[in-house]
Amino acid sequence: MNAIAPPLRQSPLRAISLHVVLLLSMTLPMLILYTIGALGPLLIADLGIEPGWLGYVTMSAFGVAAVLSLAAGPLVERLGSRRGLWMLFLSVALAYGLMITLPGFAGIIAAVAVCGVAQALSNPVTNLLIAQRIPPARKAFAVGLKQSGVQLGALIAGGLLPLIAVPFGWRAAMATVIPAALLLACFAPSLAPPPSSEGPRRSWLPARPGKLLLNLMAVQGCAGVTLSAFVTFLPVFATQQGVSQHDAGLMVAVFGVMGFTSRLTLTSLSSRLKDESWLLLGLMALTALALWITQQASPESHWPLWVGVLIVGLTAVATNAVAMGMLLRDSVFGAPATASGLLSAAFFGGFAMGAPLFGALSGSASGFSSAWSALAVVSLLGAAAALSLALLRRRSAS
């Protein structure tokens, strides 16, 4: 297994490089979610598919990620963060390479499934790397920074990729990811410690989560459902209300900026709280309110869309960073890589289900109205799970 030794002193340049790798280790695997959302109208027009089909693209990637995450923690514990980083970035390069070469909608589905491998590895690898290389006083910042990498993906997908996709096509835009992933596959592993053969060998099977972790997984499952549906279908919903493709992409970019900001600030804030569960409760409740506001948009009134983007970006997005910080702060949830894998399985499971279910509801007779309402209910269920977690932690502490 990969034993966790006290973090070593590093040069400033090496420390900065490590933080950049942590950031991009989360950005590139999750970029596919925001890319499908931001470029969704172009994909629909080029491939001749129904808007609801975009949900199956998301389901393909995150369904694979959810299943693999169950074993990703023990796998990373055995292989170590160095090999894990190499596998992560190589999977991203392969996924985007297949995406631009395989024909038709079925080819897209198959290609993004490969990205699920990188998504499953991302949290266990980065959390193990933080445990190995980041001093305790900087751990909360490192978690917030690397989790904000997911929202950096939204900024790239919404702000940069449409500028390439509109004149040159969506495949050209996606091709730009490949050289970055290959470069990181060559460089990033050198920042991780070599794998160690010392210590007992752990089972390949995931550990059985306790009640506390199960409740945290429930919160993250609801957050995953909410975020995947919101990001995948907001641009489609916005264009149906008369918003231009450029502005719809800008909404995804603004969502990324809000998420980046919230993950950096709220992760550091949560590390000073006695129990972060109450923060999760408030964030999920505010998310439900934001979804109701988004639902009020119409061709004559676009401001609810922007309000929804701002609030969901500041609330639901931050929950994953707060939850990951909880795992590193409190050993009651389990070993960092293994607990991260289980939490990621719940989060990605929510991602896999959210978009296709929302797509099916939006295509029904009641349209987007019932879909937004159902999504708000899911967020409230996440708030209820956070309340249950808070009460369990209070009981266990007494």
Task: Please render the helix and strand layout as text.
Blueprint: H1 12-38, H2 40-47, H3 54-79, H4 81-99, H5 104-133, H6 139-159, H7 161-168, H8 170-175, H9 177-187, H10 211-240, H11 245-270, H12 277-295, H13 303-314, H14 316-329, H15 336-362, H16 368-397
Helix pairs in contact: 1-3, 1-5, 1-6, 1-10, 3-5, 3-15, 4-5, 4-9, 5-6, 5-15, 6-11, 6-14, 10-11, 10-14, 10-15, 10-16, 11-13, 11-14, 12-13, 12-14, 12-16, 14-15, 15-16
Measured as a percent range, the helix fraction is over 70%
Q: Could you say what the CATH topology is called?
A: Growth Hormone, Chain: A
Q: What's the helix count?
A: 16
Q: Note poorly predicted spans.
A: none
- Shape field: globular
Main sheet attributes: strand count, strand direction, barrel closure: none
Q: Specify the CATH class.
A: Mainly Alpha
* Rg, Cα atoms, Å: 20 Å
Per CATH, which architecture? Up-down Bundle
Termini Cα gap: 35 Å
CATH superfamily: MFS general substrate transporter like domains
Order of helices and strands: HHHHHHHHHHHHHHHH
Number of strands: 0
Strand content: under 5%
Question: How many structural units, i.e. domains?
Answer: 1
Structural class: mainly alpha
- Name the average pLDDT: 83
Can you summarize this structure?
By secondary structure, the protein is mostly helical. Helices cover 79% and strands 0% of the residues. It has one domain: Up-down Bundle (Growth Hormone, Chain: A).
Verbal overview:
- The protein has a single domain, classed as MFS general substrate transporter like domains (Growth Hormone, Chain: A, Up-down Bundle).
- Helices cover 79% and strands 0% of the residues.
- It is built from 16 helices and no strands.
- The chain has helices at residues 12-38, 40-47, 54-79, 81-99, 104-133, 139-159, 161-168, 170-175, 177-187, 211-240, 245-270, 277-295, 303-314, 316-329, 336-362, 368-397.
- It is globular and about 55 Å long.
